[in-house]
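2024-03-11 09:14:02 INFO queue: dequeued item Tellurium resistance protein TerZ, len=192
2024-03-11 09:14:02 INFO validating residues
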Amino acid sequence: MTVNMSKGQAISLQKADGGTLTAVRMGLGWQSAPRRGLFGKRTKEVDLDASAVLFADNQPVDVVFFRHLTSDDGSVRHTGDNLVGGAGQGGDDEAILVDLQRVPVHVDQIVFTVNSFTGQTFAEVTNAFCRLVDETNGEEMARYTLTGGGQYTAQIMAKVHRAGNGWQMTALGSPANGRTFQDLMPSIVPHL
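2024-03-11 09:14:37 INFO prediction written
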């Protein structure tokens, strides 16, 4: 059963049977919004990028993004860069896989961001979403929809953080501006 998350909402990453999740996938999907032009509707390709910043005691210790596809310890892996988004089929255009059992104990938060590398605003994107999937069985657990477009080029999407002996996900949905995860660091800090 999928939980449609709203900004600031947190969910526990516990399985329905009471067990804990061992591996999750944060998927990102989008389409370029159609524009009216001289010759009718057309779209301009939009390159959104998913990134995961790993934190220990509110300090960044590693990052996974299109130029560094695997965390130094191997627990977080990006599936690869998609330069144009989807054709509206609802699948993930980019994904980041997290092996929660292999995340080093000093890493207490993983923040997921999305940014427009080519600089288009989210007003030029449609059907954008971020979702969390139980990677062991493919079940979608949570979905956060990027609604309303907007004149910003990035969003701090969600974070996975330690909660007791397990993990919890919080939908952040905080708009920001920047072409890369480095540009977003000042916007990430208030969410730690």
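2024-03-11 09:14:37 INFO annotate: The mean pLDDT is 81.
2024-03-11 09:14:38 INFO item closed
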